DNA sequence: ACATTAAGTGATT
DNA sequence: AATCACTTAATGT
């Protein structure tokens, strides 16, 4: 079971021994839409390999209650932050929330380090995950610094959609606004503009991407 | 039918 | 672009 999932979603993990090890130590876990998978301050004991679903990763802003949206994760990916957290034994500085029903393979952290020296494809996987995430973060910074709200909204919608198998985003304007640190009214107005341009179709609690 | 929540609108800063 | 005040629309009970 686990072997087939690995083959399908993480084919780059190629060594037979590695696959066998993952098979014996990984746990298959399921989350429902809306579940908090990991929260701020908790110790990271597991590294997730995402099989199915989509996940929102946020960071709590310094003092107040606001959250900064970092990126979305989808299947075939892993949470790079969990690598650094478990390697340095630090508490999680991020929160991960399932946007859809999500299935993942949980790897106990002690193996993550061990496998780095043992299996080239694992090391490569970890490194390229970091690289991917680093690039995504640079893009986030770039967006916040330079892009207009309407461009940011487009980026938000399409990057969120790319983590799903449907083109329907289930969210209220209020939630989208919170993710983007913007006012609900501004989001509503921009969404309406996008609808008039034929890029989206709106319904209550839903944005359909066209 | 009524209350609640989501979304639309215009004015003000 | 944020905030406010208000309206209209959709949904839950």
Summarize the structure.
With 210 residues, the chain is α+β, with helices and mostly antiparallel strands. The chain is 47% helix and 25% strand.
Helix content: 40-55%
Q: What is the number of E strands?
A: 10
* Overall pLDDT level: 91
Q: Number of helical runs?
A: 8
Write down the overall geometry: globular
Strand order of the largest sheet: 2-6-4-5
Strand percent estimate: 25-35%
Q: Segments where pLDDT lies below 50 for 5+ residues?
A: none
Which helices and strands occur, and which strands form pairs?
Blueprint: H1 2-9, H2 16-25, E1 27-31, E2 36-38, E3 46-52, E4 54-60, E5 67-74, H3 80-88, E6 94-98, E7 102-108, H4 109-118, H5 120-146, H6 149-161, E8 168-170, H7 173-180, H8 184-196, E9 200-203, E10 206-209
Antiparallel strand pairs: 1-7, 2-6, 3-7, 4-5, 4-6, 8-10, 9-10
Helix pairs in contact: 4-5, 7-8
The protein binds a DNA duplex (13 and 13 nucleotides) through residues 149, 172-174, 182-186, 188-189, 191-192, 202, 204-205.
What report would you give on this structure?
This protein has a 4-stranded antiparallel β-sheet with strand order 2-6-4-5. Strands 1-7-3 form a 3-stranded antiparallel β-sheet. The chain contains 8 helices and 10 strands. Strand 4 and strand 5 form a beta hairpin. Helices cover 47% and strands 25% of the residues. The protein binds a DNA duplex (13 and 13 nucleotides) through helix 8.
Please name the defining characteristics of this protein.
47% helix; alpha+beta; 4-stranded antiparallel sheet; 3-stranded antiparallel sheet; 210 residues; 8 helices; single chain; DNA-binding; globular
